[in-house]
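subagent[fold] <- orchestrator: predict structure for attached chain, return tokens only, no commentary.
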Amino acid sequence: MTRVGDVVGWLEAAYPPALAEEWDRVGLSVGDPDAEVSGVLFAVDVTDAVADEAVERGAQLIVSHHPLLLRGIHAVRADEPKGRVLMRLIRAGVAVFSAHTNADAGTAGVADALADAVGLVERRPMLPAEGAGLDKLAVFVPTGDADAVQDALFAAGAGRVGDYAECSFRSEGTGQFRPLAGAHPTLGTVGAVERVEEVRLEVVLPRARRSAVLAALLAAHPYETPAFDLIELVPAASGLGLGRVGRLPQPVTAAALAQRLARAVPATAGGVRLGGDPDREISTVAVLGGAGDSLLDAARRLGVDCYVTGDLRHHPSQDFLAHDGAPALIDVPHYAAEWLWLPHAEELVRRRASAEGVELATHVSTLVTDPWVAAFR
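subagent[fold] -> orchestrator:
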């Protein structure tokens, strides 16, 4: 049986919650982590229509990019939009998991999906992340209890390194202690020195899972007061971070690049828009899915030929293009750019399910949740 919490674990390992912006609300927002799941629907937004599609397809989990509860609500009422969707989901037993800015910053996330559509090679983040925040735990355990303690640490979220799970290191040695008055030792007697054959068990863990892992350690360890080291690891350079910068294998005109993107993303009423000289030769590009005019200055400082993003406003875009040598701008509708990530997330879940030997029915929603339905000229 596959649980909702299993799928959540796979996704959070790929898109660590620690990568999310402080204001974001990522993770499981609706549903029971222990509920069985046999079908998963992937969507940009959780709307009435998406909730209906999940129910019709027999999915017990929606994986969305945009959090349903990003902006807090104070009531769950059937006559209000959020409440109506929540009640529909809960009654149908459909859970909701969202990976938002953590999927923006993660590898094989929104930024890489958009970079793939552009055709970028030799890519790197626009704004590198400081790291997902890893700890290393080393604990001393009697040899006979090492497997049980290790299993508890893995179950709490430790031991994941890249695409590998249940990773650990063991070294053998002899532990020594003398229980003092008031102690209740598992081994030995109060006042006498005790020597025990132990292993030093080492695992890494996401810093966001620190409390859960330590709680699991204390619950599983046979000693009254286990000895352990917890070390915060210095983040190494990685491909994590917002946006991507890279080059095209062959230069193209700005107009040709905009046309390439228009063919790659789902059709929307607004379409893909180009700012700047259509005939400009484009070799280097920066991309950022969703709303990206907050990084206009960063894109200009990078010295790229073109900046691809969405939700570009009139005055900031006008001022940006007025600078000498400013990059061209390509505005991709918010929904359309982020939809490109959904097949990546689906493939990740399929791959993990296959590795676990379980069957999951998955589907990427093609319902257009862009708010604009028509454009008139």
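orchestrator: received. Logging for downstream: The radius of gyration is 25 Å. The first helix runs from residue 4 to 14.
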